[in-house]
């Protein structure tokens, strides 16, 4: 008999094992830098970032710091600056964003190149003096932990360095005007980075926050499964290389909106494949996929008047029963009835690149539709190849063929017999009755709304040893 010391030791070993186990989320949404770049670019457009640049108070910013150097020349330049009619950005463009791992390796560096033309109007010349200004804003996307232990993506360290700033005249004018323009440009060198930081960086942060919220809403969009639905909720983000990963938990809800099953972090394995050249991927754990299939294919009973619906199969069944019992075969009437009961929901078995579905099926044969007791009851362990494919943004599933792997005689009113004698005909019945019924329920597919929400028209999918992976189709 085990003593208290042994029990304590076992508990300690169990606790250590659980503590060392790697827990996997129900799903992982991986976002490549192309998706981040495109969505942040759109966010900047939505927040009118170029309009903000065109409203930069260039003139007031350079007047804040008087010209230094030789006093007489400095006073002259300051006097001239006071006679500038206006100085403002006339055109502004945000060039293609760049997203790459930060130097520290703990986040993603977002580089936002700015291309602007500023106009200077002064009574010294009738035409507008134009200056070309190029600079680059950089910010870091990183994972921030709150005091409560919650983590979220944040945008930090938004800045505009003097090193990236380039200012040049677009045309040469008189010596005096060129001198004035050069002085204005020298004053813009310290002033413009400060303006960009104070005026544009808040807009960039707002655009990022909106992008982040849109991504979370996209993740939470319910996935319809017949009368049920599957929903994902964000757990925590992570940044790996140039990829943002959102770890997700999942829940299955019935038609009333009640949660029937939770899928949280567990010891069930989940292999997240690298993105490679794909813009994003949604990797879903096997047990979540299995629950989705179960929601579409709940246990049910099918009743078939075999002689009316499938007369050829009715003759085959009678011939097979005749081998077992001639008397029983003679009792089969034109209303002979077959009942097929799927006792449990299908069980999905994944492998690298392929999948199978196992089912437990009860099949009963009645001599007529009025008979109360069946001739016999068979328990069938059946399996089918599960084929996942996509159509537009729909994830489709089809069961190919069905095989009766094992047959058990559960009950018999015609004496004991080897159920393998009925293997061929029962397989034909399942193929003709159960398989079309299940594929009919799967035919509508499952809409993966995030595919189009992320800007892609079609989805693609593949299987790993423990997950289903959805990616955008190659364009």
Q: Mind explaining what this structure looks like?
A:
There is one protein chain. The chain has about 475 residues and is an alpha+beta fold. Helix content is about 35%, strand content about 35%. Strands 1, 8, 9, 10, 11, 12, 20 and 21 form an eight-stranded antiparallel β-sheet that branches. Strands 13, 14, 15, 16, 17, 18 and 19 form a seven-stranded antiparallel β-sheet that branches. Strands 2, 3, 4, 5, 6 and 7 form a six-stranded antiparallel β-sheet that branches. Helix 2 (about 35-45) packs across helix 6 (about 175-220) and helix 9 (about 310-325) packs antiparallel against helix 11 (about 425-440). It is rod-shaped, with a radius of gyration of 35 Å. The chain starts with a helix and ends with a strand. The model is unreliable at about 5-20 and about 65-75 (pLDDT under 50).
Structure, briefly:
Helix content is 34%, strand content 37%. It has helices at 4-20, 33-46, 49-54, 58-63, 71-81, 175-220, 286-296, 306-309, 311-324, 326-331, 423-442, 449-453; strands spanning 27-31, 86-94, 98-101, 108-121, 129-145, 151-160, 166-169, 223-225, 228-240, 243-253, 259-263, 280-285, 301-305, 337-342, 347-351, 354-366, 376-391, 394-412, 446-447, 459-463, 467-472. The protein is rod-shaped.
């Amino acid at each position: 008999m085990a003593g208290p010391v042994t029990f304590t030791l076992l508990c300690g070993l169990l606790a250590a094992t659980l503590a060392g186990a790697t827990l996997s989320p129900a799903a992982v949404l991986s976002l490549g830098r192309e998706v981040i770049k495109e969505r942040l670019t759109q966010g900047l457009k939505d927040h009118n970032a170029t309009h903000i640049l065109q409203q930069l108070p260039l003139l007031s910013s350079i007047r804040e710091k008087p010209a230094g150097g030789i006093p007489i020349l400095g006073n002259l330049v300051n006097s001239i600056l006071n006679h500038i009619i206006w100085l403002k950005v006339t055109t502004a463009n945000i060039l293609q964003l760049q997203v790459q791992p930060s130097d520290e390796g703990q986040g993603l560096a977002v580089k936002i190149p700015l291309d602007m033309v500023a106009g200077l109007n002064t009574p010294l010349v009738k035409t507008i003096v134009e200056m070309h200004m190029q600079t680059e804003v950089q910010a870091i996307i990183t994972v921030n932990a709150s005091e409560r232990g919650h983590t979220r993506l944040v945008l930090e360290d938004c800045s505009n360095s003097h090193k990236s700033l380039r200012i040049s005249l677009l045309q040469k004018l008189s010596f005096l005007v060129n001198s004035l323009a050069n002085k204005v440009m020298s004053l813009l060198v310290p002033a413009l980075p400060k303006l960009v930081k104070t005026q544009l960086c808040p807009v960039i942060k707002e655009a990022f926050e909106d992008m982040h919220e849109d991504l979370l809403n996209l993740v939470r969009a319910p996935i319809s499964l017949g009368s049920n639905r599957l929903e994902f909720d964000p757990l925590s983000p992570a940044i790996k290389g140039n990829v943002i990963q959102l770890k997700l938990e999942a829940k299955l809800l019935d038609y009333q909106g009640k949660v029937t099953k939770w899928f949280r972090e567990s010891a069930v394995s989940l292999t997240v494949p690298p993105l490679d050249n794909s813009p994003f991927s949604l990797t879903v754990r096997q047990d979540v996929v299995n629950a989705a299939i179960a929601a579409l294919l709940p246990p049910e009973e099918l009743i078939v008047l075999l002689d009316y619906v499938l007369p050829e199969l009715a003759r085959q069944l009678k011939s097979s029963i005749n081998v077992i019992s001639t008397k029983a075969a003679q009792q089969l009437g034109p209303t002979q009835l077959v009942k097929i009961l799927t006792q449990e929901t299908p069980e999905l078995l994944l492998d690298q690149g392929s999948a199978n579905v196992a089912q437990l099926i009860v099949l009963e044969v009645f001599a007529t539709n009025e008979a109360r007791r069946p001739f016999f009851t068979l328990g069938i362990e059946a399996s089918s190849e599960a084929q996942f494919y996509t159509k537009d943004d729909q994830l489709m599933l089809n069961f190919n063929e069905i095989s009766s792997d094992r047959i058990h005689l559960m009950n018999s009113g015609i004496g004991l017999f080897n159920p393998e004698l009925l293997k061929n005909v029962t397989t034909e019945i399942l193929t003709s009755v159960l398989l079309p019924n299940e594929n009919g329920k799967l035919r509508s597919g499952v809409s993966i709304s995030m595919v189009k929400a992320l800007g892609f028209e079609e989805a693609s999918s593949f299987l790993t040893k423990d997950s289903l992976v959805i990616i955008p189709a190659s364009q």
